[in-house]
Amino acid sequence: MAPIFPRVLLIGKYRDPSSGPGLARLATLLHTLGAEVFLESHCAPALQHDLRLPLLNLEDPTPTPDLVISLGGDGTLLSTARSLAGSGTAVLGVNQGRLGFLADIPLDTIEETLPPILAGAYREDRRSVLVAELWRDERRIVSGLALNEVFVHKGCGESMVELRVLLGDRPLYTERADGLIIATPTGSTAYALSAGGPILSPELPALLLVPICPHTLSARPIAIGDGLELRLSLLAARHPAALSLDSHHSYPMQAGDEVRVRRSPCEARFIHPLDHDFYGILRRKLHWGELPGEERC
């Protein structure tokens, strides 16, 4: 039987030759299952192993892959998913990192896990994506995507930033803090969680606003609907502030700049095994909801 995903593109952690054996293992298995296998061209120079695979550029792939397998940690998977957002191409995360919250399939179990997926036995998981724009003097100077969070912060300075936040045309609040995180449900288990924010179920059409070390003790995280645009005006900053997207790209800001954040019409499409369970991962990976000494589920 032909695989559901006949063309598969493999991606490893960039500039990391340690991903070579794992990619070779995946390529061998995929060939056995009847798939045509490609290697992402930016990964190839770092690999010491001669995989002898045809190369594809993720930014302009020809032919278009049916499935992309990301080998590494959550950071590698996020970078891959950002590049593919809106393309409709499915992404599968194989964990060779530390936590592996999104890249939830251990490499050690891949021979048992991957064949059913290629035969069509999988669970699909679509995640929201944010568009962030940096405006200065009524001119857009930066635009980018974020899967986890958009973060406006004090940069390398020691002083707080002062932000005015609007939801559409309605004022939410003015806040002095070290920064403000605007997180998707996906990002609610990342930086926003470590900053004291709640966990949002992945399917919720919501955004999470989490202040970092706010000046007032009354400032608390808040979840809002993602149907309206958020506008963050930088009112004051003694030192250059910054806009960061998924802790991957960072752009300098100055007083008077405005960041506009909205949900993108495109989505990231993840593939998981049939037994994938978001709440089970919370329990296993983050020990969520466990009592001291309680046996893990």
UniProtKB/TrEMBL annotation:
Q: Which SUPFAM superfamilies match?
A: NAD kinase/diacylglycerol kinase-like
Q: What is its EC number?
A: 2.7.1.23
List the catalytic activities from the record: NAD(+) + ATP = ADP + NADP(+) + H(+)
Active site residues of this protein: 74
Q: Which domain of life is it from?
A: Bacteria
Q: Which UniProt keywords apply?
A: ATP-binding, Cytoplasm, Kinase, NAD, NADP, Nucleotide-binding, Transferase
User: Which prosthetic group or cofactor does it need?
Assistant: a divalent metal cation
Task: Please give an example of a GO cellular component term from this record.
Answer: cytoplasm
Primary enzyme class: transferase
Protein family membership? Belongs to the NAD kinase family.
Q: What does this protein do?
A: Involved in the regulation of the intracellular balance of NAD and NADP, and is a key enzyme in the biosynthesis of NADP. Catalyzes specifically the phosphorylation on 2'-hydroxyl of the adenosine moiety of NAD to yield NADP.
Kindly provide the name given to this protein in its UniProt entry.
NAD kinase
Identify the gene encoding this protein.
nadK
